[in-house]
Each structure stands twice: as structure tokens, then as C-alpha cells.
């Protein structure tokens, strides 16, 4: 994921930001973020990736790349949703998750993407 983000995504975001700038408009994301589809018999691996602490780094890098490239509002999709065969979309699989009560925050949260978004929202 890190290689893909650095080799492909950064260039795409930069190109889109430059195009938006040339038209005098802001670059806004819609349904941004990462998801993993538990398909082709690898659901266990993809769930492990979703919960891996390195996912926090991926999420943070994506949002910093967005900002540095000139992106404006980044609408992350979505706060919470069940993780199932449709994908692992949400920051957490349940709305009742309280990151402030997570004993691992801020370094080893149960749901790393949530930790990344919270730190960015706090300006950290």
C-alpha cells in the first residue's frame, strides 16, 4: 500500500489539484479513504490489514498528501459501518466505539484509521 500510495496516488492527486487550480476551483474529495474488499478467499488477511497499526500511517499519509498537493476539503467515507463482504469502509465497524476510552490511543488503537483521523482533526 505504501508503494502504491507513493508511486501512483501522489501523482494523481497532484495532477487533479493542478487541474482544479487552473480552473480556479478547489479540489474536494468525495467518499475519500481506503477500503479493502474481503474477496477471493482472503478476508482474514484483509481484516488483519484493516486492524494493523500501519493502517494509521497509511491514512495519515493519504490526508497529508492531499493537503500538500493542494487538496481542500477531504470528505472521509465513512465514520462507521459493518465490516463484511461489501468492504471495510468505516473508521470503525460500530458507532459505539469511543476512541477516548481506548487504552491504546494514541499509539495502538483498536481501529487505527480512527486514530489517524482524530489526530489530524486535532492538528497533530
Structural notes for this entry:
The chain has helices spanning 2-22, 43-51, 54-69, 112-121, and strands at 27-32, 71-76. It is mainly alpha-helical. The protein has one domain. A two-stranded parallel sheet has the order 1-2. The protein is globular and about 45 Å long. The two termini are 23 Å apart.
Which features characterize this protein?
124 residues, mainly alpha, two-stranded parallel sheet
How many distinct domains? Answer: 1
Unreliable sequence segments: none
Termini Cα gap:
23 Å
Number of helices: 4
Structural class of the secondary elements? mainly alpha
Q: Order of SSEs, N→C?
A: HEHHEH
On the 0 to 100 scale, the average pLDDT is 88
Instruction: Please bin the fraction of helical residues.
Output: 40-55%
Oligomer: single chain
Q: Could you give the count of β-strands?
A: 2
Strand order of the largest sheet: 1-2
**If you compute it from the alpha carbons, what radius of gyration comes out, rounded to the nearest whole angstrom?**
15 Å
The biggest sheet amounts to: 2 strands, parallel
Strand content: 5-15%
- Silhouette: globular
What topology does this entry show?
Layout: H1 2-22, E1 27-32, H2 43-51, H3 54-69, E2 71-76, H4 112-121
Parallel strand pairs: 1-2
In brief, what are we looking at here?
With 124 residues, the protein is mainly alpha-helical. 45% of the residues lie in helices and 10% in strands.
